[in-house]
Specification:
- It is a single chain.
- The chain has 57 residues and is mostly helical.
- The protein has 3 helices and no strands.
Length: 57
């Protein structure tokens, strides 16, 4: 997954995560990353484990 975000964009994301009063467990930069995080939150562990195993091959 390639990202076209600049280092400034990532620095702002890191700053937000470090300074917010109630930080999220994960911060996503970009649509594809948000999709992956959504999938891991809503799909069964067995399915996400299977996907990870296939991607790791």
């Amino acid at each position: 997954m390639s990202s076209k975000r600049s280092s400034q964009d990532l620095a702002e994301l890191f700053y937000q995560a470090a300074t917010v009063e109630h930080p999220k467990a994960r911060y996503a930069d970009g649509f594809s990353n948000r999709t992956v995080i959504w999938a891991f939150r809503h799909l069964p562990y067995s399915l996400t484990d299977m996907v990870i195993k296939k991607l790791m091959k």
